[in-house]
Write a structure and sequence with these properties.
This protein is α+β, with helices and mostly antiparallel strands. It has a single domain, classed as Aminopeptidase, CATH 3.40.630. 33% of the residues lie in helices and 36% in strands. The protein contains five helices and eight strands; from the N terminus they run ββααβββαβαββα. It has an eight-stranded mixed β-sheet with strand order 1-2-3-4-5-6-8-7, with helices on both faces. Strand 1 and strand 2 form a beta hairpin. The longest helix is centred in the first third of the chain and has 16 residues. The chain is globular, with a radius of gyration of 16 Å. Bound molecules: coenzyme A. Coenzyme A binds next to strand 5, helix 3 and helix 4.
Length: 180
């Protein structure tokens, strides 16, 4: 119903609890592509867990504290982007993304995130958009660079995943840099 075109065959749309079965199928299909860096990839394993994950974002959207969108290519869910954090009181939000391997290399995520940053700054008057990633995740860093984000630093052992304490790079872009 509400879609943003990313390419002739691709669009960004809200991803909601009623799409839990489709999201669960997608998670199974792309798990091997994304599980190295995304904790939810091992949490969303069936329709019930997919619904719970999407409902948590529906609740956050209702509270204006987060949002999640899917990326469909030729009508098939292939990835997504989310405001993992959205704090309108401080003007700070964080965007995260994922794509199945088959949909990579076309700029779909860069296009989607650019649209979300535009919305955050222009419609919502946010001050700062953050992007957090593992120092080993060069594809994620390339997206941040393509969007002219600045690497502000690396928090050491700041994130625990699969029993490993990982470093986390912080990238960000400010409204004052985006809207010149
Ligand atoms: C991070 C991730 C989404 C990046 O995917 P991606 O396809 O490289 O990103 P984009 O969709 O923006 O596409 C960029 C690629 O398309 C190419 N491209 C083609 N046309 C383009 C266009 N019009 N605009 C921008 N890039 C374009 C770019 O050159 C780049 O390819 P390259 O890396 O070979 O140079 C993906 O690697 C992923 O899902 N990883 C696992 C999950 C993850 O790490 N999430 C992030 C956690 S911080």
């Amino acid at each position: 119903m509400f879609a943003h075109s990313l390419a002739a065959d691709a669009e960004l749309r809200p991803l909601e609890p009623w799409q839990a079965a489709e999201f669960a199928d997608h998670a199974v299909r792309v798990r091997a592509d994304i599980e190295e860096y995304l904790p939810w990839a091992s949490i969303v394993v069936d329709e019930a867990s997919a619904r719970a994950f999407l409902q948590s974002y529906a609740d956050r959207q209702a509270a204006d504290e987060g949002r999640i969108y899917g990326i469909w290519v030729d009508g098939v869910l292939q990835g997504g982007a989310l405001f993992r954090v959205f704090d309108a009181s401080t003007g700070v939000c964080e965007i995260g993304v994922w794509l199945g391997a088959a949909a990579r290399g076309r700029g779909l995520v860069t296009h989607a995130v650019r649209h979300m940053i535009e919305w955050a700054f222009r419609e919502r008057s946010m001050v700062r958009v953050e992007w957090l990633c593992d120092p080993r995740n060069t594809a994620s860093q390339a997206v941040a660079k393509r969007l002219d984000m600045t690497h502000e630093g690396t928090m050491r052992a700041a994130f625990e995943m699969n029993g490993e304490h990982r470093d986390v790079q912080i990238w960000a872009v400010l409204a004052t840099e985006w809207i010149l």
